[in-house]
């Protein structure tokens, strides 16, 4: 999520990695030409990475307690109208968010995430049930009205994506046939909006600074497209039709952004500078989890168990590259051009990805994830990674709750 200013600054930085990469290529080539140098057979690039040692299994009671505190935070911060979050600035900087459309998009996306988190982790108390129902009523009324803010800001893609996921969980929550039929119609409507805002090159982004055309002319972003594909998979598994053409175009756009080591470009507009820091493994730690999950869910046989494990190893062994940006105020100014809001997004999709592995391989990663999230929970019970107006605590807490839930050894998919 770059401001105009920071989009330009990234472009001005592209020359340095190109020059450094060229110099290193010359040095490496000269060394390889030395006949006295022994030739070692390299492991496949995509399967090389750090070793991850086990950590002690967190006490299940500690996981339950952290989840309970997070749920309590969502309950006490729900707005009177049933939604979560607001446009009130609470620290940080005013990122580009044209009113009212950008904030309508943020507001509905965050509310959808909170509903999903409470359905998954809130339990059966009357207080939770009432909060969910108030949130559902608000979401069903407001989400169908969300559109792009203007020609260049398309934040509403997040609303449609997380709205679909919330509706899937709402559909599963109660068995009422009439209610389920209504929710299935709302899911189809949100898929239709994503068809409307699909990039001309397929996939989705959230800016169109190039043409501001009715059909967005900007390049897609790998992680936005991956999030959409995960939501589509959930909708399809529920029995809602997702057009094959829409899925194939999205998958193809992520394939175009995948590098040989399974790092993924931030967006297709960086394809001519693949070694820009944000595209390298340290910058891709959060995106790779979402992209690997999306492609695997839609049948990409190249996303094997060794690939998944390697990148989960990287996520935890080199977590500092993401953590150094956590709670910073300026997007993309940390190492590898990482922004704070990469953090819980990346861990959420890693939590989903862990359950794509065989059951025997999951505990190592569940223990690392639970240890990390319990340590990062704030005193008020929330989690947050980037000060985004007044949306950051609800979205960070929702991501963390749904991730921590999947760290329970008997947690369902």
Distance N to C terminus: 30 Å
Which architecture does the CATH hierarchy give at level 2? Alpha/alpha barrel
Low-confidence stretches: 2-40
What is the CATH third-level topology name?
Answer: Glycosyltransferase
**Which outline best applies?**
globular
- The CATH class turns out to be Mainly Alpha
Rg over C-alpha atoms, rounded to the nearest angstrom = 21 Å
Q: Kindly estimate the percentage of residues that lie in beta strands according to DSSP.
A: under 5%
- The total tally of domains equals 1
Number of discrete helical segments: 15
**Helix and strand succession?**
HHHHHHHHHHHHHHH
Helix content: 40-55%
Structural class: mainly alpha
Oligomer: single chain
Largest sheet features: none
Mean pLDDT: 90
Number of strands: 0
Topology:
Layout: H1 4-12, H2 15-32, H3 60-77, H4 101-121, H5 126-142, H6 156-173, H7 177-196, H8 222-238, H9 244-256, H10 281-297, H11 305-317, H12 320-323, H13 343-354, H14 362-376, H15 392-405
